Each structure stands twice: as structure tokens, then as C-alpha cells.
């Protein structure tokens, strides 16, 4: 793992005047800084990161493999076989199983969290499965199938297909409250679909006209709030009981990922313009932007380890930059995880 000193030049100036003002007002315990990086093998990122907080392992989907990184050791420790073009990963720690959505194969690979070996034949899904979530309340995994505008329900314990749910729009991200509700943003309808994971159907639809192109979701289970990232440079907080938008906040443009840290009541938004926005939840209906950190333009993957409160942002290094700064970088460039912490 490199140190902050070896990563000189990675941090950029804050992207906007709003971000600069937020940084000046941020309390020190809310300020995040780049503290290091982990260099991975070359390969294009194909989907979203997933963390197993109990084991401090991070799952990184490459175009040709699903790589597993030990965050404590700061290095790769293995690959999950039979995984190509993985779009997302869902973890069921109580069952010792992981589930990877293979977008090109229209299937889910089930693997053992300890050995990383595939534990069964691939499970068929709808077309182009992307986001995937595990609902502990029902013991079911759900894939969001962008190519067929539906969701596939899978029984996590045995891998059997529980059913298919028509969504009526193209699904993007999805989150679950762990108690029978799955929330999906329908990107082409500016709408949130609420699924009942027990009866396998859409039970509510919430229009979000003020959030054009909803592309990312996070959930605050204790306060019953959805956090929705919008393409117009804003984030919306939505009441999970009524679907009412209770707050909006400016963030970076081209947001791709949101994360909520219940332990610190902080919300993180990673945007394609190179901004990591940090907001403090003052109350369930009140949020305040406290920092806007310049990272790298084009970062499209972020994950939070809630046990350490560290953030991991994935970026593809060019060959010249990688060779100049990181030992072990190969001729085709490397995927690098930038580590941010308070």
C-alpha cells in the first residue's frame, strides 16, 4: 500500500466554489483525506464494488474476473472463477455465500465467501442483470435486469428461482431495508419502484420529477430515508414511508454512487466531475454539505467499509502515471483503489 506522500499530486483543488466554502465550514471529524492507495492488476472495471465488513474484504469486478482484495493487508488475495463482466455483487454473510451478476451471460454466479469457489451452476436471470441486492428479511437475492425491465428473485440458501417481477421501466440501482422492501430507481421513468420481496411484486411507485435521471441509491434504515443521486447535480432525501422528498442538496455533477454511513451520519456522493461530496445528516429531514473533495474525473466506483468508516474509490491509472508512482504497475496500466479516511 502506498502512503499519502507517494500519492502526491492525486488530490486536486476543490471542484467548485460551493465545495470550497463547505470545506472551510467542515468540522475536523467530518473531513476526509486521501491516506493511501492499493494497486490492482490491469483490467477495466465492469461494475460496482462490494465490501464484506466482517472480513474487511472488497470485491472488485473486472471485465474478465471478480477480484477479492484484503483491505487490512492492502493486496489482492484471489479471484472468483467463472465471473466475467460482473455488474454487481451481493453478500449473504450468514449463509457464507456471495452472488455476482454476470451481465453478459444473463446469469448469477454463486460462490463461497471463504474459499471463493463457485458453489453451484449459474442461475439464469432476465437480460443484462446489473444491480443485485440481498434482502436478509426474506433470504432472497434480487437482480435488476436492465435489458428486460424486470427483477429476478432468487432464494439465497439453495439458489432456486423465486420468481420474476415486471418493473415497467429500466432499473438502475437498488437497495433493501433488510425487512422485506426493495427500492429500485427506474432511470427512464424518473421513478422509484418499491418491491415487496415476500409477494414478489411492485407495491408502490413514487415519481421523482425533481430528480431527472435518478442513477444512484443509498438507504438510511434507522431514519427511514432513501438517498437518491440525480443527474442535475443534486441529491434528494425521500421518506420510505410516504415517498415524499424531504430534502435536496447540491452535489457534484454526473453522480454515480452514494453511500450512507450510519455510524457517523455522513452521506458520500462520488461524481464523474471528480468531486467527492460529503454531507452531514443534521436530522432525518435536514442535511448540510460539509466537504467537497477533488478526487479524479471519471471515478465511477466507490464503496464504504462501515466498520472502519473508510472509503475506497476505483480509478484506472494510465501507463505513464502508474509506472511513475506505483511499484508493480504493468505495461497496460492498473486499476487503483484510492483510500479516504477521517
The gist of it:
With 342 residues, the protein is mainly β. It has 2 helices and 29 strands.
Question: What is the topology?
Answer:
Elements: E1 2-3, H1 17-25, E2 33-39, E3 50-52, E4 57-61, E5 66-70, E6 75-80, E7 86-92, E8 97-102, E9 107-112, E10 123-124, E11 129-135, E12 140-145, E13 150-155, E14 161-166, E15 171-176, E16 181-186, E17 191-196, E18 201-207, E19 216-220, E20 225-229, E21 234-239, E22 245-250, E23 255-261, E24 266-271, E25 275-283, E26 286-294, E27 302-305, E28 310-316, H2 319-325, E29 335-341
Antiparallel strand pairs: 1-2, 2-29, 3-4, 4-5, 5-6, 7-8, 8-9, 9-10, 11-12, 12-13, 13-14, 15-16, 16-17, 17-18, 19-20, 20-21, 21-22, 23-24, 24-25, 25-26, 27-28, 28-29
Describe this protein's structure.
This protein has one domain: Methylamine Dehydrogenase, Chain H. Helix content is 5%, strand content 50%. The chain has two helices and 29 strands. The two termini are 18 Å apart. With 342 residues, the chain is mainly beta.
* Annotated CATH architecture: 7 Propeller
Uncertain runs with pLDDT below 50, 5 residues or more? 1-24, 319-332
State the strand order across the main sheet: 1-2-29-28-27
Count of alpha and pi helical runs: 2
CATH class category label: Mainly Beta
Instruction: Tell me about the largest β-sheet.
Output: 5 strands, antiparallel
Choose one word for the global shape: globular
> Count the strands?
29
Helix percent reads: under 10%
Distance between the amino and carboxyl termini: 18 Å
What would you call the structural class?
Answer: mainly beta
Using only C-alpha atoms, the radius of gyration works out to: 19 Å
CATH topology: Methylamine Dehydrogenase, Chain H
Task: Provide the β-strand percentage band.
Answer: over 45%
Overall average residue pLDDT = 87
**CATH superfamily label:** YVTN repeat-like/Quinoprotein amine dehydrogenase
Amino acid at each position: 500500500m502506498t502512503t499519502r506522500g507517494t500519492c502526491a499530486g492525486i488530490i486536486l483543488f476543490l471542484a467548485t466554489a460551493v465545495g470550497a466554502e463547505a470545506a472551510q465550514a467542515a468540522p475536523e471529524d467530518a473531513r476526509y483525506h486521501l491516506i493511501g492507495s492499493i494497486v490492482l492488476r490491469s483490467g477495466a472495471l465492469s461494475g460496482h464494488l462490494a465490501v464484506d465488513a466482517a472480513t474487511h474484504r472488497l470485491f472488485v469486478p473486472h471485465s474478465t474476473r471478480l477480484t477479492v482484495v484484503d483491505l487490512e493487508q492492502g493486496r489482492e488475495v484471489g479471484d472468483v472463477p467463472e465471473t466475467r463482466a460482473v455488474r454487481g455483487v451481493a453478500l449473504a454473510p450468514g449463509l457464507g455465500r456471495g452472488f455476482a451478476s454476470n451481465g453478459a451471460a444473463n446469469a448469477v454466479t454463486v460462490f463461497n465467501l471463504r474459499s471463493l469457489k463457485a458453489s453451484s451452476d449459474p442461475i439464469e436471470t432476465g437480460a443484462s442483470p446489473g444491480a443485485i441486492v440481498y434482502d436478509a428479511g426474506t433470504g432472497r437475492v434480487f437482480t435488476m435486469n436492465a435489458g428486460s425491465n424486470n427483477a429476478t428473485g432468487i432464494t439465497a440458501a439453495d439458489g432456486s428461482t423465486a420468481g420474476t417481477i415486471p418493473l415497467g421501466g429500466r432499473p438502475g440501482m437498488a437497495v433493501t431495508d433488510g425487512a422485506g422492501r426493495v427500492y429500485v430507481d427506474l432511470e427512464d421513468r424518473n421513478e422509484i419502484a418499491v418491491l415487496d420481496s415476500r409477494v414478489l411484486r411492485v407495491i408502490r411507485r413514487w415519481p421523482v420529477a425533481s430528480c431527472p435521471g435518478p442513477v444512484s441509491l443509498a438507504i438510511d434504515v434507522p431514519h427511514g430515508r432513501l438517498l437518491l443521486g440525480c443527474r442535475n447535480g443534486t441529491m434528494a432525501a425521500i421518506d420510505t414511508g410516504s415517498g415524499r422528498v424531504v430534502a435536496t442538496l447540491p452535489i457534484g455533477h454526473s453522480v454515480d454512487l452514494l453511500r450512507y454511513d450510519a455510524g457517523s451520519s455522513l452521506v458520500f456522493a462520488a461524481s464523474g466531475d471528480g468531486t467527492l461530496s460529503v454531507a452531514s445528516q443534521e436530522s432525518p429531514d435536514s442535511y448540510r454539505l460539509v466537504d467537497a473533495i477533488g478526487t479524479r474525473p471519471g471515478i465511477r466506483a466507490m464503496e464504504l467499509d462501515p466498520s472502519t468508516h473508510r472509503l475506497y474509490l476505483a480509478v484506472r491509472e494510465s501507463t505513464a502515471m502508474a509506472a511513475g508512482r506505483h511499484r508493480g504497475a504493468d505495461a497496460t496500466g492498473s486499476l487503483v483503489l484510492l483510500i479516504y479516511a477521517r
